[in-house]
């Protein structure tokens, strides 16, 4: 049986993100290798990963080499830093599916790069990235930026246990 995972904001090849987000790496080579290792430690070859944007700052050849190393079926929802490239560029770089827009997953989760406006009456949860180490204090938002999860994709089962209210409540 395959599992589903979510993650965002790797910024592969982006040396300035180390300082911007106080990432604990000496350089981008160390950061990129660590993030690939963390991904593959939890994601199996048959699993599906939704990457919620800002994947790589590298050229297509180097990006493709990283994508090829990562386990699973990879679905990119383009982030603000991914938009300088076309959907077909990302497909050529190795993603299995690419969306330029947020998507609804299982009729309850809005998957987007940037957090979306959610009023308290909306019966949905926004799984997002973009804001890195920050997060909203609301059960309607879950930030899956790498900084919150030790650079590992988060399993959907964990998310549903965390954000979907049980009937006993």
UniProtKB/TrEMBL annotation:
Domain Calcineurin-like phosphoesterase: 4-130
SUPFAM superfamilies (UniProt xref): Metallo-dependent phosphatases (SSF56300)
Name of the molecule in the record: Metallophosphoesterase
Organism: Paenibacillus aestuarii
